[in-house]
Target: DNA-binding protein H-NS
Amino acid sequence: MDERKRDSMVAYLRRRMAEVGIELDDLAAAFAEDQIKQKA
Model:
């Protein structure tokens, strides 16, 4: 994926996250929880 397309996708995701009230900390917590579950 080229950098311009990536930047566009990141901007889109940030807008959508803001629309539904998802924060970066929410994603980080979800990823951490998934990693813990996978190790178990």
